[in-house]
User: Which sequence fits this backbone?
């Protein structure tokens, strides 16, 4: 299977065939030089602990940008005189049960990292199985669905419709239903169909969610070529397009058999389907509706709600925590209608207006942060939020003092904008926790509705808010909300200069400001038209000499933009390491390493490992970054063990990278610690044990310096674990006696015989 045909594991549930073992024809010599290496390995054990560490051997990453929790752990362990625990599990956002559990469990991850919350939909790469299955869960089949299935027989379907009508959900169901396959891929909106080719013979469906250049579909010869390629690959493609009257009219004229308009089912049908999927028991559904009031619910369902709003309603109803009036107060579909009235009510209250805008941007953060940012906005506005200016002394006897410390209370401000101060909750940072009392609007979606309204309706507000947000403190908890607003602003504004304010942030010497630009790029790229410009800018920036723009590109690859376009992101990351970092640090290298970890944890493990294997074969910074990043990714024991146990293509890359990392002095200790930790896990997990023994057996084929040192560490490890110890001892004994080290008596397991080192 070629690299271009490999279906990554984390994507669409593709079954990977085990590749044939690949061996080097040239064997490393095992002469006197290795004897010296073995003696060195044995001698150095006396001054190291079971993880190969000395007090003078701190494990600081040259790139300096590790995940905060992991960095704090490593710093606490080194130089403290403590031995690490027998087994160390690193699973951000995960849940470990260390005893018997009765009843249900719930984990709520609200972090800002790439692993937090729902996976970003894939726009260029394998579509995740969970998104495909979720799209079919509670899907109300519209009346045109059967016609669309028949149109898809032609291999190409153009699905038009307005935003919010469920076009992507319908497209996923069409592809899955027609192909009866989970091996589906997303195609980026910037695709040029004249150059595009299907990705191997296994993929049965392609989804293009928006097109930057939809006019290319008006070229008959190009569409015929596209259909021919899809037919040859036995695949189908659905292209989601906006309901632009002129474009749709031309497409219907040129491609009448391929165009279908997405019109959602009635609100009642969508509600019934989703409600039944969430609550399968009919008696329980009847009880919930009776408690809420059938007439009230029926009246609400009589309105023309979008599928997204119906899904929001179902989510609230099934909780059974509120009455109908309370649920209605929270529904986001009423937010747009209330914004003009809210703005008019606060027009003569500058502090309230500032507090409203600050709450919209920083909703969910601590009330103190919201208040500080509101005060900063009010000061920066310099009376631009005042509907009326005070008169002169001659015209008035007295006027309000803007610096009066007993102004509007927090309760009054919150009540005025329809928000509330939530109960105290504890959040965590690197090495410590802190309490917050977040501000949240009562009605869902009000923050975005307010920002969209003022941005479009009041031209001068955009300049004030951009100036305000650009000068915000670049603190970690402020980066995401500021970036989201900046990105949404680019989508709301449009025009040739839609990204100008983001480009200015990308050139900042401040790391936090560049991360704001990256977050903004990810949000702006949700617009298919802007996605094309963003792709162009990132490609151009990746080739510049200056480190600031290149660091911003790396940060962007770590966001939803890169996660949804893994191949494009990895290509950009590979280009970034040809330039130079600044003289005071390593921001580009650090950002690249962080982006690689983000892509890995997002479900693109195979693609990342394959690319790291390619880079490690080179000389220079790409090889260095590849090995450094891999030593951290190796700590994902369940995934690595799964690949080695199944004998996938990724397993061969893992073996080769481990072999090379062990032979590099800078990476040896971290690689050895990861493998020794793996031994502790292998004591109670059979798959991990099989995989570890397969890895060690493969490593024994090339007894270079690093492998010898590792085997000595395992042989002399005083822990009770027996995993891999026999293999290490047999390999060392055979080596000392001048016999071949790759004897088949190591484990007797088939997985061990499938791989040999690739380096």
Assistant:
């Amino acid at each position: 299977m070629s690299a271009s045909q490999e279906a990554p594991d984390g994507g669409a549930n593709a079954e990977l065939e085990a590749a044939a073992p690949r061996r080097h024809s040239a064997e490393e010599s095992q002469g006197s030089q290795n004897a010296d290496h073995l003696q060195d390995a044995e001698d150095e054990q006396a001054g190291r602990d079971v993880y190969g560490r000395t007090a003078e051997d701190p494990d600081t990453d040259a790139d300096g940008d590790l995940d905060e929790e992991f960095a704090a752990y490593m710093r606490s362990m080194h130089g403290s005189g403590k031995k690490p625990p027998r087994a160390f599990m690193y699973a951000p956002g995960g849940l470990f049960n260390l005893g018997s559990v009765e009843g249900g469990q719930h984990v709520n991850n609200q972090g800002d990292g790439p692993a937090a919350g729902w996976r970003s939909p894939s726009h260029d790469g394998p579509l995740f199985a969970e998104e495909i299955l979720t799209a079919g869960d509670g899907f109300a089949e519209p009346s045109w669905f059967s016609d669309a299935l028949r149109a898809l027989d032609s291999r190409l379907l153009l699905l038009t419709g307005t935003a919010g009508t469920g076009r992507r959900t319908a497209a996923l169901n069409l592809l899955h239903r027609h192909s009866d396959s989970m091996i589906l891929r997303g195609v980026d909106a910037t695709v040029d169909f004249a150059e595009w080719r299907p990705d191997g013979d296994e993929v049965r469906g392609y989804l293009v969610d928006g097109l930057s250049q939809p006019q290319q579909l008006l070229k008959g010869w190009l569409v015929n070529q596209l259909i021919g390629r899809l037919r040859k690959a036995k695949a189908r493609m659905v292209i989601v397009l906006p309901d632009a009257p002129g474009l749709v009219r031309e497409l219907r004229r040129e491609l009448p058999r391929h165009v279908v308009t997405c019109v959602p089912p009635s609100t009642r049908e969508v509600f019934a389907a989703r409600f039944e999927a969430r609550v399968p028991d009919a008696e329980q559904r009847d009880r919930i509706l009776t408690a809420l009031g059938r007439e009230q619910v029926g009246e609400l369902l009589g309105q023309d709600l979008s599928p997204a709003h119906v899904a929001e309603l179902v989510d609230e109803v099934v909780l059974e925590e509120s009455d109908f009036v309370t649920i209605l107060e929270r529904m986001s579909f009423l937010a747009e209608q209330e914004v003009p009235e809210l703005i008019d009510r606060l027009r003569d209250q500058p502090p309230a207006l500032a507090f409203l805008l600050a709450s919209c941007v920083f909703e969910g953060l601590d009330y103190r942060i919201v208040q500080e940012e509101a005060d900063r906005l009010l000061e920066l506005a310099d009376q631009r939020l005042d509907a009326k200016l005070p008169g002169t002394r001659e015209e008035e006897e007295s006027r309000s003092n803007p610096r009066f410390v007993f102004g509007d209370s927090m309760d009054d401000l919150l009540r005025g904008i329809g928000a509330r101060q939530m109960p105290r909750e504890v959040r965590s940072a690197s090495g410590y926790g802190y309490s917050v009392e977040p501000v949240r609007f009562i009605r869902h979606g009000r923050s975005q509705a307010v920002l969209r309204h003022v941005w479009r309706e009041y031209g001068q507000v955009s300049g004030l808010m951009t100036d305000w947000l650009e000068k915000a403190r670049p603190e970690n908890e402020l980066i995401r909300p500021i970036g989201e607003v900046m990105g949404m602003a680019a989508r709301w504004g449009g025009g040739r200069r839609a990204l100008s304010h983001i480009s200015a942030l990308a050139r900042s010497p401040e790391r936090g400001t560049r991360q704001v630009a990256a977050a903004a790029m990810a949000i702006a790229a949700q617009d298919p038209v802007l996605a094309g410009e963003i792709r162009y800018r990132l490609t151009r920036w990746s080739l510049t000499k200056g480190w600031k723009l290149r660091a911003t590109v790396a940060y962007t690859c770590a966001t939803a933009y890169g996660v949804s376009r893994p191949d494009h992101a990895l290509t950009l990351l590979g280009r970034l390491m040809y330039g130079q970092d600044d003289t005071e640090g390593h921001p580009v290298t650090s950002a690249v390493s962080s982006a690689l970890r983000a892509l890995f944890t997002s479900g693109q493990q195979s693609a990342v490992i394959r690319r790291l294997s390619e880079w490690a074969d080179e000389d220079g910074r790409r090889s260095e970054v590849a090995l450094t990043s891999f030593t951290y990714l190796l700590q994902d024991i369940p995934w690595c063990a799964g690949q080695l146990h199944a004998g996938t293509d990724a397993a061969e890359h893992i073996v080769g990278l481990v072999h090379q990392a062990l032979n590099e002095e800078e990476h040896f200790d971290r690689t050895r610690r990861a493998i020794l930790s793996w031994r502790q896990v292998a004591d109670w997990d059979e798959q991990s044990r099989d995989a570890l023994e397969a890895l060690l057996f493969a490593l024994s084929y090339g007894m270079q310096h690093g492998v010898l040192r590792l085997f000595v560490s395992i042989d002399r490890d005083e822990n009770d674990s027996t995993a891999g110890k026999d293999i290490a001892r047999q390999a060392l004994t055979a080596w000392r006696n001048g016999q071949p080290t790759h004897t088949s008596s190591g484990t007797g397991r088939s997985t061990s015989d499938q791989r040999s080192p690739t380096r």
